[in-house]
Amino acid sequence: MSNVTQQLELYAKKLVTSGLVVGAGGNLSMRDGDYMYISPSGFDLQEIEGPQWVKVHIGSGAVESELKPSSEILMHLECFRRRPDIDSVLHAHPSYSVGVSSAGQEIPSMFPDFPAMIKNVKYLEYMIPTTHVLADAVADVIEETDVVVMRNHGVLTVGTSMKEAYFFMQLVEEAAKVFTISSTVGTPRLLSDEECADLRNLSSEKYRAKLLKDTK
Questions:
Q1: In this structure, what CATH number is given to the domain that contains residue 14?
Q2: Which end of the chain is more exposed for a tag (fewer CB within 10 A), N or C?
């Protein structure tokens, strides 16, 4: 098993055990030179084994495996084509993020890690999943962000490592969860733009961000 498929298998299991996806929901991929490996269609993510990850040529979109790739293949391809700096793409259906965004809200900064590690979040209105329409919409914003929230659907994160993309997914969901809890008991106190800027400039946060890019 290659290092790429080992990483995919590890984080596919993490997505399921952490509750970020349910059943056969969600998909993930990693770049390997001119190719990407992506989860096969219809599989429970925690049950995918090494040879079952689907090899796809990024430039042409040609599938070089017997299994059918995730139905969101177009979205993954566009991310890799538009962002030569990334090697990992995650798409999940985290409950709080979907809930908050589908209520027309944006997920705010309420604790230090969120603004320190995520530079911005882009929001897309609902579009039919698995289509070129959604893939094109993601392509239009992915050069400006590492996190795309799709209302009534899910969240997509990208990273220079799978560890980074997964951490972004965790942070977005935790931020949405904290906002939901705070909203039920009172008026949320949001971090100001100045406070967020100060957090991004902390040397400790810059060091942590560097560690997340480590692909080992």
A1: 3.40.225.10
A2: C
Question: Among 147, 154, 132, which residue's Cα sits nearest to residue 75?
Answer: 132
* Residue span of the structural domain in which 89 resides: 3-212
Number of domains in the chain: 1
Question: Helix, strand, coil % (nearest 5) of the chain?
Answer: 45, 15, 40
The pTM score is 0.91
Tokens of 79: 């991310």
- From first to last of its 216 residues, what are the pLDDT tens digits of the chain? 689 999 999 999 999 999 999 877 899 999 999 999 999 999 999 999 989 999 999 999 999 999 999 999 999 999 999 999 999 999 999 999 999 999 999 999 999 999 999 999 999 999 999 889 999 999 999 999 999 999 999 999 999 999 999 999 999 999 999 999 999 999 999 999 999 999 988 866 555 566 667 654
